[in-house]
Amino acid sequence: MVISIAHLGPVGTNAETAALAYADWLEKTQDKTSLLCPCPSIAQTLHSVAKGDTKKAVVPVENSTEGTVVSTLDTLWQLDNLKIQQELVLPIVHALFSRGTSLNGIKTVYSHPQALAQCQGWLQEHLPNVALIPTNSTAEALEKISLEPTSGAIAAPRAAKLYNVPIIANEINDYQDNCTRFWVMTLEPTPTVSSRISLGFSVSENVPGSLMKPLKVFSERNINLSRIESRPTKRSLGEYIFYLDIEGNHEDPKIINALDNLTHHTEIIKIYGSYSVLLLKKTDIEQL
């Protein structure tokens, strides 16, 4: 059976790279063949799985330098049936592409907002006066510059051979240890030995102690939280959804007890899944 995997497209995005790496891992470890299905947005990527159009989706959730990819969390909160199958940690390298001959002639730079933010120090130093224009993906940025010799695009180096556009500056991200977490989402996750659990919850009212009580559930049981952050509920100013990553296995009795107890201190709670983490290397990406 061929497994269809949705990802943010078009060809050449970091999401596609993560999906390719996951497909390669599936083939090597489970002897499964995959079909990659590019989507125009992260939201549509997740909805394609929720509607059953694809079997899985690979979506970015957090970057080591720029933080959370909010469209992923916001869309997941709207959907009730998607679960995390696996986490992929992808090393991120950005390059500047242009059909011009030098940096001096560039007046505009296109890229995904995350990529622009991850290279803002380099851009300020080398191209302080250019216009920065966000696109839906890094690959879309490459399409924008095809007929514009005075423009540049920030994308992954592997896109050079895909779009036949020259790289005029490589490894321009501000931090060399730059990586992005991706979640593999599905309707029917296969049980695995997990090392992390992700969830989101809202509280019934914005009063003193409303967040402390849910967090105390974990501290009392000596359960470590590797991430906590908030997003607005979009219902009213001052109302938030809280997202947590928990270190541990979903079969651990103290975690089972904590999650059960958590329901007494929350309004809505969504367990997105328990999963293991696959760390990818630059050498893995270079072979794709």
Strand content: 25-35%
Instruction: Calculate Rg over CA atoms.
Output: 20 Å
Which second-level CATH architecture of the largest domain applies? 3-Layer(aba) Sandwich
Instruction: Identify the quaternary structure here.
Output: single chain
CATH class of the largest domain: Alpha Beta
**What percentage of residues falls in helices of 4 or more residues?**
25-40%
CATH superfamily of the largest domain: Periplasmic binding protein-like II
How many discrete domains?
A: 3
- Give the helix tally: 10
Write a brief structural summary.
The protein is of the alpha/beta class and 288 residues long.
Overview of the structural elements:
It is a single chain. With 288 residues, the protein is of the alpha/beta class. It contains 10 helices and 16 strands. The strands form 3 sheets. Strands 1, 2, 3, 4, 5, 11 and 16 form a 7-stranded mixed sheet that branches. A 5-stranded mixed sheet has the order 8-7-9-6-10. The chain is globular, with a radius of gyration of 20 Å.
Give the tags:
288 residues; alpha/beta; D-Maltodextrin-Binding Protein, domain 2; Alpha-Beta Plaits; 7-stranded mixed β-sheet
Helix-strand blueprint:
Elements: E1 2-8, H1 14-30, E2 33-39, H2 42-50, E3 56-63, E4 67-68, H3 70-78, E5 83-91, E6 95-98, E7 108-111, H4 113-118, H5 120-126, E8 131-134, H6 138-144, E9 151-155, H7 159-163, E10 167-169, E11 179-186, E12 196-202, H8 212-219, E13 225-232, E14 240-247, H9 253-262, E15 268-275, E16 277-279, H10 282-286
Parallel strand pairs: 1-2, 1-3, 5-16, 7-8, 7-9
Antiparallel strand pairs: 3-4, 3-11, 5-11, 6-9, 6-10, 12-14, 12-15, 13-14
Helix pairs in contact: 2-3
